[in-house]
Design brief:
It is a single-pass membrane protein. With about 675 residues, the protein is α+β, with helices and mostly antiparallel strands. It has 19 helices and 19 strands. The N and C termini lie far apart (about 80 Å). Bound molecules: 2-acetamido-2-deoxy-beta-D-glucopyranose (NAG) (7 copies).
């Protein structure tokens, strides 16, 4: 009986091998099925979906590879879009679309919304209407995990190629936005081949920004790897050291490009007997793959019979992936508010990770995975079993919080969701481990760019201005818009992370509550904060309020504008710290001298002066005179409002070294940049 299984299994293995050997690395097909909304069998929605698909299959033989169709009326309307790779011929395109539709129906059987990337095309459908704006979710990325031998040379060549292709692709017309090209690198005349494509309905501007985001993401995930693909619904980037596209494209565009996009697909089907052949091969591959995996799983399972915990672990992984998917699908920043008691009970389950999962994700807290050291413990990068990247904060064992309070606070913080806040995904509580799991933000923190002479050029003024706006909105959300009123208490440039698009995300908010410092503080007057960012009333008397955050915000803005670290800034001549120096320059009409020389060229004097003015208002000594974050946002957005003149900034921290230790009985400080916990006695 066993042998009757083995022979087909071996055959399938062989087939699988052949399937893989036929192309290069075969990443396709890739599916994204939205699993929080299903339609029922034989429903109107299904009928409409079939109609839409039939219309895609039928018309894909004409045109230039982009097809947009819809069927039915709301609430059962279905929109389906197919986009073929710009270099393939119409036969290949049509076959790819037909196969993809079959695969999509098999893999995402009754999902309301789904997407497939095949090697020659992508197909997606949804109950919402797709519009011609950059759509970034769901997305996928694939890579070979093989590094180029000389990463620097490779990267440099790739960057040049990327710039050229992006411009070319974005410059395409409404029929096709596509570019391919290659470039040699290294001594042995190896080549990089790259392909960039946008959905042709995007504007050139949107195409350009989509491609730069996607390219940057490919660098973020797979720096130096020789075979990488990043796929968004609206655009994609792929490069490899092996040639993988047709040059020139199989279909030429008409020479005078028509100004209007082609008309939507017309329904009406034709039979096709070739279809079955094209379906059988990939299906056999997929089946073969599944069988191999099942075989492996059985084998492994036998070996680890005793480990029942595994199942539970896998489960929590899945629950989590669907949680993230839901959130990803919903682009609105703020799902957070509607929390009922039942949701909170349910929330614990979906927020809880077990230690095994996290250890597997971080290589058991391997040192090489460490990406930072915060005030309350080290931070590790991890990759969950489903491929998702996370940042894991391992709280130091001394944190005083009991388990229940810890969980309660995590649930509250996980509800705070905003574009400009790093998302808290969950926690892990196991014996003496307390871990916080955050979304991973690809581009490190603001100080990594701002204070490094080789990198600060990457932050021109428009980017810095955008970052200031983002921080403002994030802080406003913490202070006023969320249901909780969160005082950050440790806002600083190293707590501002940047995503691949250089959008700021504030991290470590609510941490004082999670580790229970807020409670402890009442009893022992411990002060949490960082030198240079602490408002005088907080540093001297332990009084904290939203206005102490506003103070820290002002310092951050000054650092962004001047490119100078507040903790390092110390003017020996007249014993001034950064904020005081800025204030004096302002009063004396020399404020433009503050501006980081690398951005002087790109900056708008109006914007810079306004930001300096705002920063100085925020760091005023008088607590009540400092603006609220809401007011800051208002004056950032509205240039017709006249700004008050800032009054004197505090002068309480003349030097780092003597700081305010005369006021404290014991000061336990680590480095000047890291968060300090200070026992202060009045
Ligand atoms: C939708 O169906 C998929 C499987 O077909 C299932 O995994 C998922 O839980 C379903 N979702 C809902 C909300 O019913
Ligand atoms: C859907 O309809 C077909 C025929 O119209 C029928 O054979 C099938 O059983 C139906 N399925 C369900 C789930 O109702
Ligand atoms: C994709 O198109 C190329 C021709 O451009 C073809 O050789 C290849 O087989 C196609 N891939 C699949 C999976 O059909
Ligand atoms: C699509 O379906 C989801 C899930 O049922 C629903 O929440 C959403 O409102 C629908 N969208 C449209 C545009 O009908
Ligand atoms: C698809 O076509 C419809 C109707 O012509 C249009 O409103 C919609 O914007 C189109 N969507 C895309 C992504 O082109
Ligand atoms: C590839 O290079 C990265 C650093 O850029 C390194 O972390 C990774 O381990 C390398 N991978 C392999 C397979 O050598
Ligand atoms: C691509 O690079 C890998 C690793 O450097 C090498 O093994 C492979 O032969 C290269 N492929 C081509 C087509 O150059």
């Amino acid at each position: 009986m066993e042998s009757s299984f083995i022979i087909p299994c071996l055959l399938l293995l062989l087939l699988q091998f052949l399937c893989l050997a036929a192309g290069q690395v075969n990443y396709f097909p890739i599916f994204r099925c939205r699993d929080d909304g299903n339609f029922t069998r034989n429903s109107t929605y299904e009928t409409n979906l079939k109609t839409a698909f039939a219309s895609l299959s039928a018309t894909a033989a004409t045109g230039y590879g982009f097809y947009n169709t819809s069927a039915g009326v709301s609430p059962n309307a279905v929109t389906a879009i197919a986009l073929c790779r710009g270099d393939v011929g119409s036969e290949t395109c049509r076959d790819c679309i037909r196969n993809s539709i079959v695969l999509l129906r098999q893999n995402c059987a009754n999902q309301l919304e789904a997407l497939i990337w095949s090697s020659n095309c992508s197909v997606r459908y949804s109950n919402r209407t797709y519009t011609s704006v950059v759509d970034v979710r769901p997305n996928a990325r694939v890579s070979s995990s093989i590094n180029a031998s000389d990463i620097d040379v490779f990267d440099k060549a790739l960057r040049n190629l990327e710039g050229r292709l992006r411009v070319e692709a974005a410059g395409g017309n409404s029929l096709r936005k596509f570019a391919t090209g290659d470039v040699g690198f290294g001594p042995d005349s190896s080549k990089i081949y790259a392909l960039m494509q946008c959905s042709p309905d995007l504007s050139s501007f949107d195409c350009n920004s989509c491609l730069s985001v996607v390219y940057r993401e490919s660098q973020g995930c797979c720096d130096g790897e020789i075979d990488v693909g990043v796929f968004y619904p609206s655009c994609s980037v792929r490069y490899s050291n092996a040639s993988f596209y047709n040059d020139p494209p199989a279909i030429k565009l008409p020479s005078p490009p028509p100004s209007s996009p082609e008309s939507p697909a017309i329904p009406g089907g034709t039979g096709n007997s070739r279809k079955s052949i094209y379906v059988i091969v990939p299906v056999a591959c997929v089946l073969g793959g599944i069988l191999v995996i099942i075989g492996l799983c059985l084998f492994i399972k036998r070996r680890r019979k005793n480990n029942i915990k595994d199942a539970a672990k896998k489960e929590s992984g899945t629950a989590f992936s669907s949680l993230v998917m839901n959130e990803n699908q919903n682009n609105s920043a703020n799902l957070a508010q509607a929390g009922s008691a039942e949701m909170e009970m349910g929330a614990v389950g979906s927020l809880q990770f077990d230690l095994f999962t996290i250890e597997a994700a971080t290589n058991s807290f391997f040192d090489g995975n460490k990406i930072g050291q915060g005030g309350f413990g080290p931070v590790y990068k991890g990759v969950l079993a489903n491929g998702m990247e996370v940042a894991v904060k391992r709280l130091s064992k001394s944190s005083g919080q009991g388990s229940q309070e810890f969980i309660n606070e995590v649930i509250l913080m996980a509800k705070l969701q905003h574009r400009n806040l790093v998302r808290l995904l969950g926690f892990c509580l196991d014996a003496d481990e307390k871990l916080l799991i955050y979304e991973y933000v690809s581009n490190k923190s603001l100080d990594y760019f701002l204070f490094n002479p080789n990198r600060h050029g990457q932050l021109d003024w428009p980017k810095r201005y955008k970052i200031i706006g983002g921080i403002t909105r994030g802080m406003l959300y913490l202070h006023e818009d969320s249901r909780l009123r969160i005082i950050h208490r440790d806002l600083k440039v190293s707590n501002i992370l940047l995503d691949f698009d250089m959008n700021p995300k504030i991290s470590d908010f609510g941490l004082a509550r999670i580790v229970g410092v807020d409670q402890i503080e009442v009893n022992t007057n411990r002060i949490v904060g960082t030198y240079g960012y602490m408002s005088p009333e907080y540093a001297m008397h332990g009084h904290f309020s939203v206005k102490s955050d506003v103070f820290a915000f002002g310092i951050v803005v000054l650092e962004i504008i001047t490119g100078k670290k507040c903790s390092r800034f110390y003017n020996e001549d007249d014993h001034q710290d950064l904020s005081h120096f800025a204030w004096k320059s302002w009063i004396e009409g020399r404020a433009m001298e503050l501006v980081d020389p690398t951005i002087v060229e790109t900056c708008s004097e109006d914007e810079v002066m306004r930001c300096i003015n705002i920063a100085l208002l925020c760091v005023q000594e008088d607590v009540d005179a400092r603006p609220s974050m809401a007011y800051v946002l208002n004056i950032l957005n509205n240039y017709s409002i006249d700004l008050p003149t800032p009054t004197r900034t505090p002068h309480y921290l003349p030097k780092r070294h003597d700081s305010y230790s005369s006021n404290s009985k014991s000061v336990s400080k680590s480095t000047d940049e890291s968060l300090i916990t200070n026992v202060y006695a009045r």
